[in-house]
Amino acid sequence: MTSRMDTRFAKLKAEGRPALVTYFMGGDPDYATSLGIMKALPEAGADVIELGMPFSDPMADGPTIQLAGQRALKGGQTLAKTLDLARDFRKDDSDTPIVMMGYYNPIYIYGVDRFLDDAIEAGIDGLIIVDLPPEMDDELCIPALAKGINFIRLTTPTTDEKRLPTVLNNTSGFVYYVSMNGITGSALPDPSRISGAVARIKDHTDLPVCVGFGVKTADHAKAIGAAADGVVVGTAIVAQVAGSLTKDGAATADTVSAVSTFVRGLSTGVRSARLVAAE
Amino acid sequence: MNDTPKPNSFRSGPDEDGRFGIFGGRFVAETLMPLILDLQAEWEKAKNDPEFQKELADLGTHYIGRPSPLYYAERLTEHLGGAKIYFKREELNHTGSHKINNCIGQILLAKRMGKTRIIAETGAGQHGVASATVAARFGLPCVVYMGATDVERQAPNVFRMKLLGAEVKAVTAGSGTLKDAMNEALRDWVTNVDDTYYLIGTAAGPHPYPEMVRDFQAVIGQEARQQILEAEGRLPDVVIAAVGGGSNAIGLFHPFLDDEGVKIVGVEAGGHGLDGNEHCASITAGSPGVLHGNRTYLLQDNDGQILEGHSISAGLDYPGIGPEHSWLNDIGRAEYVPIMDDEALEAFQLLTKLEGIIPALEPSHAIAEVIKRSPKMGKDQIILMNLSGRGDKDIFTVGKILGMGL
Question: What's the pTM?
Answer without folding.
Answer: 0.95
